């Protein structure tokens, strides 16, 4: 069974992160278009995915074009 968590930003679901048994990293799956740049990005932790999604939301609020996640 996958280990999965919902990532929420400002009380809205940004997406989920999930990892399969035996995997070390989480994969991000966006639930809103704003967070699509994070699709297929691997994160070492749920907190790292939360931080990346928060950064995208902050950039969008400030009118900054989101860059593809590293």
Break the fold down into its secondary structure elements and pairings.
Elements: E1 3-9, E2 12-19, E3 26-30, E4 42-43, H1 46-61
Antiparallel strand pairs: 1-2, 2-3, 3-4
Please list the strands of the largest sheet in the order they lie side by side: 1-2-3-4
How big is the Rg?
12 Å
Q: Helices and strands, in N-to-C order?
A: EEEEH
The count of strands amounts to 4
Task: Report helical residue fraction.
Answer: 10-25%
Total helical elements: 1
What average pLDDT do the residues reach?
Answer: 89
Describe the structure.
The chain is an alpha+beta fold and 70 residues long. The chain has one helix and four strands. It has a four-stranded antiparallel β-sheet, covered by helices on one side. Strand 1 (3-9) and strand 2 (12-19) form a beta hairpin. The longest helix is centred in the C-terminal third of the chain and has 16 residues, at 46-61. The protein starts with a strand and ends in a 9-residue tail after the last helix. 21% of the residues are buried.
Outline of the structure:
Helices cover 23% and strands 31% of the residues.
List keywords for this structure.
single chain; alpha+beta; 4-stranded antiparallel beta sheet; 1 helix
